[in-house]
Records
---
Amino acid sequence: MPTNQPNLVLTSARVLDPDTKTDAVLDVAVRGGSIFAVGSGADVPASAETVDLSGKWLMPGMIDTHVHVGGDLDGVTNPGIGLRSVVLAGATTVIDLGGSMERLVAGMREHGAGANVGGLGMMKPGVTLPDDDPWPSVVRSTLDTALTSGLLGLKMWGGYYPFSMDVTADIIAACNERQAYVAFHVGTKSSGSRLDGMRELPALLGENGRVHVAHINAYCRGSILSPADEITEALEILDGLRGRVVSEVHLARPNFTRGECDEDGNVRMDVARNCLRLKDYETTRDGMRRAIADGYGSVVRQSPSGLSLATGDEGVQLFNDADSLVGMSFPVNRADTAFQLTAAKRQDGSFIVDAVASDAGVLPRNVNVEQAMNMVRFGGLTPLEMAEKISFNPARMIGLEKKGRISVGMDADLTVIDPDLGRAVMSFVAGKPVMQEGEAVGKGGKLLVTAFGEAAAGGYDLPFEVVDLSRSLLYSG
Ligand SMILES: [Zn+2]
């Protein structure tokens, strides 16, 4: 191609760029993997492909900072299938919150649909850790193993595998020492996956600690106070840690958890117990069966195309067949909570919760664009604010300075939204289409690694990009 001409021109789109506050009908020209020009009425060279986006919205590619595409989830033998789901939902970059590099790479090779993917290592006693409450030296060697394998950092699943407060604080400190990414589903041995887990954040972080707090809405389900009071307090906690905590909220109603029960017939996971208690079911194997039979709890089942939910007799059957080792879902996420946490701003106009993320991927609730568009229709977000919450802020959270923006020289990662349908209908990664009208058309994907993982990434037979997390909002906020 000529060196000074675009090879792709997207014409007449309503361009939404939160960085420059641009909201106007413009043409966007792409050359190679980058944005070559943004303007109107430019002469399009005959050699360039053009896509008429009249009536469509064009935003920087959707970045989902909380997905599960490489993790270890009950009943999911091949999490790589989630890589197609995220692309179908309009994502161009995703962060897997808690798995292993081995599974992530295998999934990308087999099912990758063209998205950029970074991953965090899961802190799971008996699997990625030798024991419960690891010593500081074990925490650091676990982190180093994760980073040198190409992962961006660690994820603590406090609602599932909680540590003591001291160990939780130490894991955060270890990640901070390396400027590695660290995400936290709150809860320790002295709290739960609830508001009381969030209340521990100031003590866990001390003077200088930094952490990504996952799905704030999951701690505002009314387990401790009224949902409204929990929202107020959660926002106060986050605002009090401004500049040191990044966070996201998801907008799907169904949650996901695990059905696992112990030898005595008690439900093992704190998240699942909370779901049962919210509707006055016993936190036992029988209580779980009743919740499923009544249609409140659903069991996650895997099919070649993805996951779906089974409830009633069929759900109970699946639960029994797997001896309780199943993924579960309860409709416990409140729409009012999601709306308020997403829209909440400080006096200076900045959002208290940085981003909308899906906590989906392989789980059937990749609804960032659909639900954010519902909020736009209702007036809870402007179109530019939507692009801020699902692309610009997520890019800043990870330190991806060439993503989340539509201006010259930025990566040509773009998501096209049909405002009438209220969903993503097309997207591009590095100027190449990865999704077109309900079809995932990309392959493979680029790995996001830190400098520690560069050597390993060279051996995975996948393209990769080195991310400088010191530039992320987590460390520069
Ligand atoms: Zn998650």
---
Amino acid sequence: MKILGILGAHKQTGLTAQMLAAVLAGVPTPHTVETIYLEDYHFQPDQVGQRDPVLDELTAKLLESDVWVLAAPTYWGGLAGKMKDFLDCMRGRLVRFDHKGGTHPDRFKNKHYMSITSCYASTIENWVTGVTDNSFRTIDKVMSAAGLIKIKELVLPGTLLMDKIPEQKLSQAQQLGAKLITKPKRDDNTMKRYIELFCMIAVMAFLTMGIQFLFHLITPGTFWLTYITFVLIFYVLLASILHFFTVVKHRRR
Ligand SMILES: Cc1cc2nc3c(=O)[nH]c(=O)nc-3n(C[C@H](O)[C@H](O)[C@H](O)COP(=O)(O)O)c2cc1C
């Protein structure tokens, strides 16, 4: 297997680069690794009838790799510009377009990826405010459109006064790198999620009606009949709404 690290950062040897290097260092032999530093590649979007040769070179590297590790710091609350520009310029190569302009996974379908970002914000600030959310979300959106399967994401918060990455973080990165070769299958837990939803509604309804019962708002004789019918009706309605918004609605666009 080949693991390709893609670094989109101002600094070639900065903290994000070191996190990427630690992940790749964890990849066991005989698997191979390669890192590309996007600042070294002066690509442009393809023009009609004229494909960009630098993008050709990068596309070949992407094609020959099984796992991509995309690493970019968080700038202005979003994905660093060079990585975003790379994903933007690669758009026409990452997906196939139908006659209505809709995008579909193409030749990179079922490859795997991992994402890494870093930020000045501390662990607690990032946990509360989600400073790095947009960076991960942008990568996930593009990768999902291209049909790639996510393995993991890794964040390095608190980089403001950091001159050396903590050992524990580096070893976490290496451990993740070691796992990159055991790729997960596409996540299709729809049935499991509907069962979980049913259990959540059953528990919450039981607690709610239990409280009502304690305060004599429900008569003892009708408790179980009311409870079972409430859970079933509420579950069917909620599952239908969720199905519409998450499955049916997407297909229309
Ligand atoms: C242009 C720019 C914008 C930044 N914006 C943010 C930000 O919005 N939030 C944040 O926590 N850190 C921000 N940072 C800090 C970077 O995330 C930080 O420089 C990075 O974690 C360091 O990684 P590096 O050593 O690989 O460059 C910004 C840095 C730069 C250069």
